[in-house]
Amino acid sequence: MGAYILRRLLLVIPTLFGIMLINFTLTQFVPGGPIEQIIARVEGEADSLRNISGGGDAGAAQGGVEDSGYQGARGISPELLAQLEVQMGFSRIVCDEGFAGTPDLKDPACRKEPIPAWKRFFYMMGDYLRFDFGKSFFHSQTVIELVVDKMPVSITLGLWSTILAYLISIPLGIRKAVKDGTPFDTWTSGAIIIGYAIPGFLFAVMLMVLFAGGSYWKIFPLRGLTSDNWDQLSMMGKALDYLWHIALPVIATTISSFATMTLLTKNSFLDEINKQYVMTARAKGLAERKVLYGHVFRNAMLIVIAGFPATFLGVFFGASIIVETIFSLDGLGLLGFQAAVERNYPVIFGTLYVFGLISLVVGILSDLMYVFVDPRIDFERRAG
């Protein structure tokens, strides 16, 4: 088993490198970048101020923004653009040989030199190997600080959704296996397929319309994890307020994940029910409940229990982006969405590196869970 784990750990390095390389390459072809985002913001502020000061060219001609000295009205100067490119790592300052002072673009002996994309990639990976993810372009925080700040919301959403999925899927899957081929099995399978087919974001919007004051009932809050009077609530009040806010996001996240788990549980039970030891237990006169939960459950649940890490990670990463954005939950999903819109490369690639590494490690942990719950599994022998 040790050799198998070592091989898997060694595969993490080229796999993670390939993930980062593909995504970094794709971003080079995406129009717009952080510099363009800053220019667009400045121009938008200039247009707004121009409209306020008199409306378009007429206002400018009457001594509006153009005469006010507002930098955005005249555009960003080439010097400021050069400084932004250096600050964001797209260029570097190169000075003449023999220059002894501090490199500065204002010095005639220094100039801006673009850094090729391939060099920027290797510089970035070198920093990431030391877990130095840099600082956000548009926040006064490092990437690590942003991730740590947003992580509790996403973990809460993923953990509650995974627990709820297991609490629903296992009893329902067992019931479907026992009632295989009956009307109960048929209509529950139809409901599961419909729930699985509905996209998570569409289900989230439907929940908002129905239960968050969209068009029908205002039972649950529309956004956030806590109420405005959170600090004044008692401990029990805080717990109830938290559950009240998290109800709709958790349901929206769970709807697609529990379908797969239910069918997996059913198939595992059906496979075990038809084995010889179950027939022997029944022939000895054991009650059906004793057979199911004393013998079948222990063997059928191996694959379901061992898959918990992967299931949690799938819920954590798969649905959090859309659900957090819809319900305005300040978690990693919303952070990633905003980073993609803003072209905030340190946040995009930093979180991609961290989550990619976590996903690969969790894959190894899932294999170890299979061996832990069922020692008969030997991945090393299969690999050989």
TrEMBL record:
Record's Pfam families?
A: BPD_transp_1
PROSITE patterns noted in UniProt: ABC_TM1
What main location does UniProt list?
A: membrane
Under SUPFAM superfamilies, the record lists: MetI-like
Give the residue spans that cross the bilayer.
9-26, 155-174, 186-212, 242-265, 300-327, 347-373
Compartments where found: Cell membrane
Family classification: Belongs to the binding-protein-dependent transport system permease family.
Q: Which PANTHER family match?
A: INNER MEMBRANE ABC TRANSPORTER, INNER MEMBRANE ABC TRANSPORTER PERMEASE PROTEIN YEJB
What is the name of the protein in this document?
Answer: ABC transporter permease subunit
Native organism is: Sedimentimonas flavescens
Q: What is the lineage of its organism?
A: Bacteria, Pseudomonadati, Pseudomonadota, Alphaproteobacteria, Rhodobacterales
